[in-house]
Write a structure and sequence with these properties.
Shape: globular
Distance between the termini: 59 Å
Radius of gyration: 27 Å
Oligomer: single chain
Number of helices: 32
Helix content: 40-55%
Structural class: alpha/beta
Largest sheet: 8 strands, mixed
Length: about 775
């Protein structure tokens, strides 16, 4: 049975994980039954319905589209158990009690087909216990599929086989979860906690306990245990709030119960009295509105708003909330820019904290080899895919240097894991015969093998020589194609980014390459133009410099469209603002299923100035065929800063075209782009279009004023919206006046410059750069 025959799936257990699994199956276009216990009364499927509501939460949508919701059928295990009779895969995600799971498996075995695959989402019960007493025919097609929350967005899938699980079952699950569910599949031994949680929770607990022991505030600890270490910016206290302090406490307890007595995890697992009191008081994190951080309503006379929120942070010594100010530690900023070694070389209180957390975490990861397997790659994969680390533990050890790391451990009289002693002075990763290889426990260096079609640029680039590079971007040659990679913080774009893109296009044409692909392996394709650079321009009153930058940006993206070579954008994560303007000018888009696209410049008081207004108007004109309708559609999308949270929604908003494609697994984007390059059809040059002119422009301005008077918009929204209206309609010009592509470019730049001269736009940009959120004024 190949993956294509997975036509019907059942998920039993409609809690957070079960609902998430069902949602991702539905996103793949597959019929899925979501079952839970039957409820009393008329709402017999109340538990399953609650799971569906979680998937449809607009703040964390588990579904890619309304069509995906239609693939989900809700039911209960009393009335709908017979639906399992023709399922290809049955995934169990019920409460972590062995007796309940085993009772369920016996029922499943009585109903399901002889070739149906059954899996559990557990990470705390050994597979040998799960299948105890079950017939061998059941054990042969049973495995653990451990997903991470939220299922739609977290890439890691830990796949665990039992003693009797057949090879073809593991192959089917691997291929299905990789290609159709979009997961990075990591095969794990049946050891406690597997890989992701075993290392990830240890790191979190180590950061937490060390922070308490050293007297750091939540703000200080999070400023270090975050981006400076290549870890998500939530930090440790912020992450506890995000997950839920009570839930994290339960996770820790479950690991304590299953890990052997001598495991170092027990040394970072003790309950902290303050946190025990917090749980009792309902201070469990974001879900209850307060944890280590909270947001409280306050009045701000500088902002025209009915209500804004002030951030507060818990003082760990007094257990009282105090005003929170975003902490900018020079050490953390330097480490983020120059690398993790900066933290480890620092002898301050903060440097010692970083060393304690990192050294213990890296030693713990190394100590697990060979218990969890001989291969280091799955450990690194688990942390990158399941915890969003930029680098895995062994990649970090390479960055630090094994000799340096071990020498410092010895100088402190600390125990050195056997693997680190053996690898002392060596790299864990190296390039041999133009292939990336990873050191195994026995000291050998086999090449890293990925599934057919999987091509991670972060690995490939280590075998390549950049053709041109600066701090913001680089370009390489792969398979006779130019690959452009943005690699700045959040992949924000500035003049240097565009210089590399321009050079790649010009050199690809000059050298007769197959085309250009714009892609990277970072969390986000690009979060837009560097607002800090824009701020520098207006603070210096250098409007000519700003205009020159915008013009250069426009001409580079225009060169993408006008190049005789095909240009493909292969984005994942956020492609917003200027990043999306790059995507808009590609001949073909091959995006990830979770790509978020949109032009959000209005939210910070400016307009898209790199061709975004122009392309939005052209795209909507192509979609609707009527300039007035196209103008209004573009006006609404740009004015509200709307985003498409999946390629399906982006197509409905005319952000992507029908010919643009997407894949469930982001690790397959680059390979697909390379395969598609020779099939791309170049779009013809844009022709001048007759704009709607003064009648529609006036109507838009009147709409803005009315919306402001009704409390739907803020005063400066009217100013920004009026500029957008002027670009899209031509302003006070006569209806049907022709505007060329360059005319629209020019209009964008003029509007952008007018807006950055206003104090209201500057206040929005300053707020975004200072606090991470834009004020409404």
């Amino acid at each position: 049975m190949s993956t294509s025959t997975f036509k019907k799936v059942a998920v039993i257990g409609a809690g957070t994980m079960g609902a998430g699994i069902a949602g991702q199956v539905a996103n793949a276009g597959i019929e899925v039954w979501l079952l839970d216990l039957a409820s009393e009364g008329e709402q017999v499927n109340a538990l399953a319905e609650r799971g569906m509501q979680r998937l449809q939460d607009p703040d964390a949508p588990g579904l890619m589209s309304d069509a995906a919701a239609e693939n989900i059928h809700l039911g209960n295990i009393r009335d709908d158990f017979d639906q399992l009779a023709d399922c290809d895969w049955i995934a169990e995600a019920v409460v972590e009690r062995l007796d309940i799971k085993q009772d369920l498996y016996r029922r499943i075995n009585d109903v399901c087909r002889d070739d149906a695959i059954i899996t559990s989402n557990t990470s705390t019960i050994p597979i040998s216990l799960l299948t105890q007493g079950m017939p061998e025919s059941f054990c042969e097609r049973f495995a653990i599929t451990h997903f991470f929350n939220p299922v739609r967005f977290m890439r890691l899938l830990e796949l665990v086989r039992g003693e009797h699980t057949r090879d073809e079952i593991m192959q089917q699950l691997d291929a299905f979860c990789d290609q159709q569910l979009g997961k990075g599949v990591v095969h794990c031994a049946d050891t406690p906690g597997f890989l992701g949680n075993r290392v990830g929770v240890f790191a979190i607990q180590c950061a937490l306990h060390t922070g308490f022991e050293m007297g750091l505030s939540p703000a200080e600890a999070d400023a270090l245990f975050g981006r400076p270490m290549g870890i998500p910016k939530t930090g440790v206290f912020g992450l506890y709030d995000l997950i839920g302090i009570d839930l994290m406490s339960d996770v820790v307890k479950s690991l304590v119960n299953i890990l052997p007595a001598g495991d170092d995890f027990h040394n970072v697992a003790a309950e902290i009295p303050l946190m025990t009191r917090m749980i009792a008081n309902g201070q469990t994190g974001n879900k209850n509105g307060q944890g280590f951080f909270r947001d409280v309503p306050t009045d701000n006379p500088d902002v025209t708003s009915n209500e804004v929120f002030t951030r507060e942070v818990l003082d760990l010594k007094t257990n009282t909330y105090q005003p929170y100010q975003r902490l900018e530690l020079p050490l953390a900023q330097k480490a983020e820019a120059q690398g993790i070694q900066v933290l480890l070389d620092d002898d301050s209180h903060y440097g010692r904290y970083a060393w304690q957390v990192l050294s213990r975490t890296l030693c713990y990861a190394a100590s697990l080899i060979p218990e969890v397997g001989d291969d280091i790659v799955p450990v690194d994969d688990a942390m990158k895919l399941g915890y969003n680390w930029v680098q895995g533990p062994f990649e970090l050890l390479d960055q630090i240097g094994t000799e340096r790391f071990v020498s410092r451990l010895e100088a402190e009289g600390r125990e050195v894991p056997a693997l680190l002693q053996q690898a002392r002075g060596d790299q864990f990763y190296t390039v041999l015969d133009k292939k990336l290889c990873a050191r195994r426990a026995d000291g050998s260096y086999p090449a890293i093998e990925r599934a057919e079609g999987v091509l991670r640029f972060s690995e490939l680039r280590r075998t390549l020589q950049a053709q041109n590079s600066n701090a913001m971007a680089s370009w390489f040659i792969v398979d006779d194609a130019a690959i452009v990679e943005f690699h700045s913080k959040a992949n924000a774009l500035d003049g240097d980014s565009m210089i590399i893109l321009q050079d790649a296009i010009q050199q690809a044409e000059a050298r007769g390459l197959r085309g250009v692909i714009i892609h990277n392996d970072a969390q986000h394709f690009s979060c837009g133009v560097n607002l800090g650079a824009v701020q520098t321009y207006y603070q210096a009153e250098d409007y000519q410099g700003l205009d020159d930058f915008l013009n250069h940006f426009q001409q580079v993206v225009l060169a993408m469209r006008n190049s005789p070579l095909p240009v493909i954008a292969a984005p994942s994560g956020l492609s917003i603002g200027g990043g999306f303007e790059v995507v808009l000018h590609a001949d073909q888009v091959i995006g990830h299923a979770n790509s978020v696209t949109g032009l959000v410049e209005s939210l910070v008081g400016v307009v898209p100035g790199g061709g975004g207004c122009k392309e939005t108007l052209y795209r909507n004109l192509e979609k609707y065929g009527d300039i007035d309708t196209a103008s209004w559609k573009a006006f609404m999308n740009l004015g509200y800063g709307r985003t498409g949270t999946s390629p399906i929604i982006s197509k409905k908003l005319a952000m992507l075209r029908e010919q643009d494609g997407w894949l469930m697994n982001r690790d397959r984007l680059l390979n697909q782009a390379l395969k598609t390059l020779d099939q791309v059809q170049k779009a013809p040059p844009r022709e001048a279009i007759p704009l709607s002119g003064e009648p529609v422009y006036t109507a838009m301005c009147e709409w803005l004023v009315k919306a402001r008077d009704e409390g739907q918009l803020y005063p400066h929204d009217v100013v920004v919206g009026s500029e957008i209206a002027g670009i899209l309609t031509g302003g006070n010009c006569t209806a049907s006046t022709l505007h060329s592509e360059q005319d629209l470019f020019d209009a964008e730049r003029r509007a952008f410059l007018r807006l950055v001269k206003t104090p209201q736009t500057r206040a929005r940009i300053d707020s975004m750069l200072g606090s991470g959120s834009s004020i409404r004024n």
